[in-house]
Amino acid sequence: MQFKVKRSRLGGEIFIPASKSHTIRAIAIASMAEGESILNHPLVSADALSCVDAGREMGATIRTGKEYREQSDLLRIKVRNLDDKDFIIEGIGGKPALSCQSIHVGNSGTTLRIFTALAALGEQKIIFDGDNSIRQRPMMPLLSALERLGAKIESANGKCPISIQGPISGGKTTVQGISSQFLTALLMACPLAENDSEITVENLNEQPYVEITLDWLKMQGIEFEHKGLDWFRIKGRQRYKAFHRAIPGDFSTATFAITAAAITGAEILIRGLDFSDSQGDKVIFSHLEKMGVVIRHTGNGVLVRGGVLNGMNIDMNATPDALPALAVAGCFAKGQTRLLNVPQARLKECDRIAAMTNELKKMGADITELPDGIIINQSRLKAADVHGWDDHRIVMALTLAGLSIDGETVVDTAEAAGVTYPGFRDDFIALGSRIEEINN
Question: Are 396 and 421 in contact (CB under 8 A)?
């Protein structure tokens, strides 16, 4: 599928969909919990549905609000205001009861890492695999850490397909933090191990994502000690409890709305965000404000208005998902923008540093690739046919660029936007975007 994009005049309001990070952690914990959990307003996207499938394969019963209403005469007594897209999850009490020999995680790296660790709690051998992108994502740091805790691993190259067999029993382990998901996976599995666990963390990237995980553990009453984010001791033989929680809006997704306002000069009201949440990408609002975006918090949401942008240096280590959008913003900013200290951006759905450098060059950008980032000088972009790299954030970022320049920009692999933001095109059309969807 392609997006054909033309210069647009934007304005209005947008409600940001639920956080992918929170949704996947919520599904995983509810799947392992004792009893019935309710997730209100979760993200319903390709990645989230891959996580639902993984939870089901682990033995959990997961239904949507619509399915629950059709199957239960007790709905009006047990649950009020249940939306059709909410998730109701009957967990497995910390004991994997795998219903298959393999789990396919699609394009979801977070699901892969978390459920690999959770599957290691059981005695059954299970194979994990995914799409072509997943088969390029590193797994060895997590696999090595799980081996030290007692798991048996089989993998040809430290990547999918992999097989894992537990049970992990606890003990001491070390994990490299090139992806925060490796640590998150261990933190979520170790409370359910038979014995206490001690985790030493080396070179941790993306720290705010670990803070999200710790918030979930605290909400669950999980007992652990830690020294910063470098060392953890987690008590074994704990249990997750059923819960009822609404999933907060996604700041990573909101990055595209505020960037659109920034580069088009539009005024957009962004709704559905909780700035008290631990999501690291909320700092993008601060970054863009320093670049020249006007931001005003109101009772209805955050009002953002674009204007004259100025380049700046930004340390992106905590916020790698924002790199594609900020690379586009840098093209419209006076002077030079440097996106730095984010080598892990090369290990996402694609090598996002290389992808954004290559595609923005096609559009005329003055851009230089660094080992750990990108340097962008103010550029006069032109419409072009560009490759979305089957990466949702690349597709959406290049679409934003097309909204701000003359001519017709064509972005391929546009279906990838549905991995985290199925409503991207519709929401931006409601703001005034001229985005035509073309099926190949």
Answer: yes
Could you list the active site residues?
Answer: 321
Q: How would residue 74 be classed by pLDDT, with cut points 50, 70 and 90?
A: low
Q: Quick one: pLDDT at residue 364?
A: 98
The 10s digit of each residue's pLDDT in 221-263 is: 999 999 999 999 999 999 999 999 999 999 999 999 999 999 9
353 CB-near residues (< 8 Å, 6+ apart): 323, 342, 345, 346, 369, 370, 372, 373, 374
Angle between helices 283-291 and 251-264 (to 10 degrees): 10
What pTM value is reported for the model?
Answer: 0.95
Of 429, 433, 426, 394, whose CA–CA distance to 413 is shortest?
Answer: 394
Query: Which domains, ranges and CATH numbers included, belong to the chain?
Result: 2-17+249-438 (3.65.10.10), 20-233 (3.65.10.10)
Tally of residues, the chain: 440
pLDDT, tens digit (0-9, with 9 covering 90-100), for 121-175: 999 999 999 999 999 999 999 999 999 999 999 998 999 999 999 999 999 999 9
